[in-house]
Amino acid sequence: QLQASGGGSVQAGGSLRLSCGVSGRSLRRTTMGWFRQAPGKEREFVSAIKWSSETYYADSVKGRFTISRDNVKNTVSLQMNSLKPEDTAVYYCAASGGAIQSTISLMNTYDYWGQGTQVTVSS
Predict the structure, then answer these.
(1) Strand 44-49 relative to strand 55-57: parallel, antiparallel, unpaired?
(2) d(C-alpha 38, C-alpha 25), whole Å
(3) How far is the C-alpha of 106 from the C-alpha of 79, rounded, in Å?
């Protein structure tokens, strides 16, 4: 089970830190990802981190967002800085047991999904 938290409302330029707690399974050899879905839009890839701690980012968030993982606490975090109104969305964490680089940004790569947490950025 994946439980996302940390969403909220901030002004443009502000920061938020999302966390995803994983229960019922180890994060060993698991790739963790963050996706987001804005109103009226399709869900899109934001970031991912492999078991090796190799990280991946969508171009739209590169340099502003940082993904990290704590394999002891079974958590994954997404530090979001310099937030923009276009970052407003519901953010979902997801887990994959077999992600490879070429498919890491695809939704169907991920087997388990959290419930989502709302992030609202006002201008």
Answers:
(1) antiparallel
(2) 29
(3) 21
| CA dist., res. 101 & res. 52, Å (int) | 12
- At 9-66, the pLDDT tens digits run 999 999 999 999 998 878 888 999 999 999 999 999 999 999 989 999 999 999 999 9
Maximum CA pair distance of the chain?
Answer: 40
One-letter amino acid of 78: L
d(CA 27, CA 8): 26
DSSP sequence for the chain: -EEEE--EEEETT--EEEEEEE-SS--TT-EEEEEEE-TTS--EEEEEE-TT--EEE-TTTTTTEEEEEETTTTEEEEEE-S--GGG-EEEEEEEESS--GGGTT-GGG-SEE---EEEEEE-
